[in-house]
Design goal:
This protein is mainly α and 398 residues long. It folds into 2 domains: 3-107 and 237-361, no CATH class; 117-234 and 381-386, no CATH class. 65% of the residues lie in helices and 3% in strands. It has helices spanning 3-26, 35-57, 83-103, 107-110, 120-145, 148-153, 156-167, 169-197, 204-221, 225-231, 240-252, 267-270, 285-293, 304-313, 317-333, 335-338, 343-356, 361-378, and strands spanning 59-61, 74-76, 117-118, 385-386. It has a two-stranded antiparallel sheet. Helix 2 (35-57) crosses helix 11 and helix 2 (35-57) runs parallel beside helix 17 (343-356). The longest helix has 29 residues, at 169-197. It is globular, with a radius of gyration of 22 Å.
């Protein structure tokens, strides 16, 4: 076993130890789905778990049949080339996990308050409403594609590109609204599944509706992420390719490529400007990466949120990632979410922040704005929390 591999295994040992303790500190029966918990699950799922596989395997090479560019298609951890990226990742994650231990209340204090009650009747109404909106959305998508057959034969990524070419910014806003509805459905589904698993409801028909809705989201969007986000409230998995690109980003930016200096984050502000009025509007971070690592190809690449931080701010990302973690802890503990009046918003943030550990910042900010508009527009949070109940329970059916 090489010296570098021993060092990397020691890195993993410290990360897993602090991560496990941090997660234990964040568990709360009162408000089970919080933004900070989602962020920590995302860091574990999208960075720590894939990093572990790469270390144990000594690296990885994407098969030639995939057609990945040689600029990022392989990682050999026996090479000293990757010592700096591995150290940056280790420090950023370790400081993030330690910040949870330093700033979160002790486990006894965190679980001393009674858990919040969830209005089962209202939660079912939310699930039925978002399912109905999704059904209309699917009909519209099939119509825009020219019918069922062209829709099924087209690739989801290329289909979105074609729709943007035809309808421009109007389609972008429509797709964002559709995504927001899917997030609200998945968030309310996770809340209901939590009730079901804790045996506070035995309504298996609604569980079938949730499973069917999640499968339909995957079929219609071509994206498995909604099922993954739903399952991550209870399960775990890996996304190794993004960590491979993360390692290359840390090696390449500042030398091979110039730092972005916050450019990708500005998209969260300039998104509202139509491209015809602002033709120089910045591409999002996955598209920027694709332009650098897969020039001329219609695709996008992810490098996790740590990768985006590094591409913009360099080694400052080692401090910025734990700062983000502390800010999310403050948000989770703040009066707006901790009192349970915004239970659905907290659950939606839980899911979005799992995804934000992998996806670009602007993508999640914009999605969250549309989620808030949907929740406020339909009054979905009203009467969802049963104030005064001592545990997660269903409303009395009339």
């Amino acid at each position: 076993m090489s010296f570098l591999r021993i060092v990397y295994i020691l890195f993993l040992a410290t990360l897993f130890y602090t991560y496990w303790i941090a997660l234990s500190r964040l568990r709360s029966k009162r408000l089970p789905l919080t933004p900070i918990l989602g962020w920590m699950v995302g860091l574990g799922y999208f960075i720590l778990a894939p990093l572990t596989i790469l270390v144990l395997n000594g690296g990885y090479s994407i098969p030639d049949i995939i057609g990945a560019n040689d600029q990022y298609a392989s990682v050999d951890l026996a090479s000293k080339t990757y010592f700096l990226p591995m150290t940056v990742i280790w420090l950023a994650l370790l400081l993030s996990f330690l910040s949870v231990l330093l700033f979160s209340p002790s486990q006894g204090h965190a679980t001393s308050e009674p858990s919040l009650g969830v209005n089962e009747r209202k939660l079912k109404k939310i699930l039925f409403l978002t399912s109905a909106i999704a059904a209309v959305d699917y009909v519209v998508q099939i119509h825009l594609a020219g019918g069922i057959e062209p829709f099924l034969l087209s690739h989801w990524y290329l289909r979105q590109d074609e729709m943007f070419t035809l309808y421009g910014d109007l389609y972008v806003f429509y797709s964002r609204a559709s995504l927001a509805n899917q997030i609200v459905f998945a968030a309310s589904g996770a809340l209901f599944a939590g009730m079901y698993l804790q045996k506070y409801t035995r309504n298996w028909r609604v569980m079938i509706l949730i499973a069917f809705g999640l499968i339909m989201q995957m079929v219609m969007s071509g994206n498995r992420i909604f099922i993954a986000l739903f399952g991550l409230a209870f399960l775990d998995g890996t996304e190794a390719a993004n960590v491979m690109i993360l390692l290359h980003v840390i090696n390449d930016f500042g030398s091979k490529f110039e730092y972005l200096h916050g450019l990708s984050y500005s998209k969260a502000v300039t998104f509202v400007l139509p491209r015809r009025l602002y033709p120089m509007k910045t591409e999002n971070f996955p598209n920027l990466l694709a332009g650098l690592y897969e020039p001329g190809q219609i695709t996008s690449l992810g490098a996790t949120q740590l990768g985006e931080l590094y591409a913009n701010f360099g080694v400052l990302s080692v401090l910025l990632l734990p700062i983000v973690t502390v800010l999310l802890m403050m948000l989770s503990a703040g009066s707006l979410l901790a009192n349970g009046k915004h239970l659905l918003v907290s659950a939606a943030l839980f899911l979005l922040l799992i995804w934000s550990a992998r996806a670009s910042f602007e993508d999640n900010v914009i999605t969250f704005v549309f989620v808030l508009l949907l929740i406020r527009g339909f009054g979905l949070s009203k009467n969802l929390n049963l104030a005064g109940d001592l545990q997660l329970t269903s409303a009395v059916e009339g």
